[in-house]
Amino acid sequence: MSSEAMHKKHVLGAVAAFAVLVLAVAGYLIGTRMEAGQYRETRTILPEDFSLTPTIEVNGTVYAQRANLTPILMIGYDKTDDSSSVGYRSGGQSDFLLLVVIDHDAHTVRQLQIDRDTMTAVQVLGVTGHPAGTREMQICLSHAFGKTIDQNDASTLAAVTNLLEGVPVEYTISMNITSIGRMNRLLGGVTVTIQDDFSDVDPAMVPGTTLKLTDQQAETFVRSRMQIGGGTNEERMTRQRTYMLAAIDLMMTRLKEDSGYANTLLNGVSEFTYTNMTRGRMLNEMKSAAGYDIRPVEYIEGEHVVREGFMQFDASEESIIRWVLDAFYRPLKS
Q1: Mean pLDDT for all residues in the chain
Q2: Can you give the three-state secondary structure of the chain, one letter per residue?
Q3: Would you say residue 319 lies in a domain?
Q4: Is residue 232 part of a domain?
Q5: Going by fewer Cβ within 10 Å, which terminus of the chain is more open, N or C?
């Protein structure tokens, strides 16, 4: 499938149910360091307590990298078993992207949801698997490149770090959209209040109704787009956020009530997720994060525009820089 053809493929939607894995695997401790980009690395003598801490200078202010951070990229991709594939372009689209950053010093968990239509430079591969340069495209298309899930995830990870001014993230966890129902079942059913009219799909899903979603209803709620409301991706992302917050609250409650739930959760998700983290690391980070302050989902500012008949999102560079500095750095006192 060519890049142009991938742009023209309409998918049902993002994989918001996958976001409930945030607490299950959030907190994969890595030393983060922002690469040069537009930032100028300082070469001056630093205060003693920052002598070994990477720093950057932005608009005359020196920032030091925060210690004890845990960034991980959560990927929900859309690829059915019978999806067509061509060479090293068969990974499906990454319709759901969530960067989780756990601060083990501040005891907080931050979540940045990245719009699937965000335009950024993506490293493309030829049909033989060799790099064929970069191309500006929707970030969701980055997951198509590669012949294995490891390569697909790595391609999306590279696109995300490029978008976020070079902030490196070492670990990923990904899930196919076909497993949304299994995730919902593992949580015992997530309860939400329906805001949009889904009655043409499911008579029980009418505005104003509070439902404990069945597995099929969960998939309908987070994936449907074209036939719901105005059919926009923005509306669908709002529903994703609703499901995410409800799922996280449910998971937090179960973790606090049952210390053994962490093992149960990991046993369940391991059957339909892929990650480059060890089980022990996941358990330790999950137990730590369970007691942290989970911040609301955040978004990059920008503008949705239609070009050549397809929706694209132009992210604000100022918004990106502001979020990265706030999440990964702190200003040094003068």
Answers
A1: 78
A2: CCHHHHHHCCCCCCCHHHHHHHHHHCCCCCCCCCCCCCCECCCCCCCHHHCCCCEEEECCEEEEECCCEEEEEEEEEECCCCCCCCCCECCCEEEEEEEEEEECCCCEEEEEEECCCEEEEEEEECCCCCEEEEEEEEHHHHHHCECCHHHHHHHHHHHHHHHCCCCCCCEEEEEEHHHHHHHHHHCCCCEEECCCCCCCCCCCCCCCCEEECCHHHHHHHHHCCCCCCCCCHHHHHHHHHHHHHHHHHHHHHHHHHCCCHHHHHHHHHCCCEEECCCHHHHHHHHHHHCCCEEEEEEECCEEEEEECCEEEEEECHHHHHHHHHHHHEEECCC
A3: yes
A4: no
A5: C
CA torsion through residues 218, 219, 220, 223, sign: positive
The Cα–Cα gap between 145 and 125 comes to: 6
With a cut of 70, say whether residue 47 has pLDDT above it: no
Place of tokens 């309860």: 191
Give me the mean pLDDT over the 146-159 stretch.
91
pLDDT digits (tens, 9 = 90+) for 180-212: 888 899 889 999 999 999 988 899 999 999 999
State the Cα–Cα distance between residues 84 and 158, nearest whole angstrom.
24
How many Å apart are CA 332 and CA 64, to the nearest integer? 6
Q: Is residue 92 part of a domain?
A: yes
Query: CATH no. for residue 318?
Result: 3.30.420.590
Q: Which residue has the tokens 């966890």?
A: 173
Q: Which residue has the tokens 């999306």?
A: 156
Residues with Cβ < 8 Å from 311, sequence gap 6 or more?
117, 232, 233, 304, 305
Q: Who's near 115: CB < 8 A, 6+ residues apart?
A: 139, 233, 237, 299, 300, 302, 313, 315
Structural domain harbouring 107: 3-178+274-329
In a domain, 91, yes or no: yes
Could you give the number of structural domains in the chain? Answer: 1
pTM for the whole structure: 0.75
